[in-house]
C-alpha cells in the first residue's frame, strides 16, 4: 500500500448550503505550513495530468467540485484513489509519483502546498523517479 492519508474537514453546512473552513496556520488541520495554493479546473475530457513526483514538496489535494482519479506510486506500490469529496483532502508526501485521470468536466482540484513553486523540485521522468527511490538519483 502507498503511504498516504486522508484529511477530513468538517462540513459547516446549513439550510443555505455547504461551507468548509481550512485554517492554514493550524497544524492540527494541515500538517505543514502552507506556502502556496493553486487550483486546477476546466480540464478537457480524456486529458490526464501530473506524471511527476516531488523531491521535497508535500501537498493536500481536494476535489472541491466534480471528481477525478489520482494514481499514487511510491516506486514499489501503485494505487488509485478517487477524489470526489470537498470535505476530504489527500495528503501526498514527497517522493510519490502522481497521475490524475478521468476528470469530470466540472472538476475543480484545490491543492495546498508546503513550498513555493520550484520546477527544480519536480521529477518528471518515471525512470529517474525509480532511480531516486533506489537511492541512485
Ligand atoms: C501536482 C499536481 C497535483 C506554476 O507556474 N506554478 C505552480 O504553482 C504550478 C502548480 C504550476 N505552474 C506551472 C508549471 C507548468 O508550466 O503551470 C504549468 C502546469 O503545471 P503542471 O504541468 O506541473 O501541472 P499538473 O497538473 O501536471 O501538476 C500539478 C502540480 O504542478 C503538481 O505539483 O502535484 O498538480
From TrEMBL:
Residues 3-131 form the Sugar 3,4-ketoisomerase QdtA cupin domain. It comes from Litorivicinus lipolyticus. It holds the Pfam family FdtA. This is WxcM-like domain-containing protein. SUPFAM superfamilies: RmlC-like cupins. The lineage of its organism: Bacteria, Pseudomonadati, Pseudomonadota, Gammaproteobacteria, Oceanospirillales.
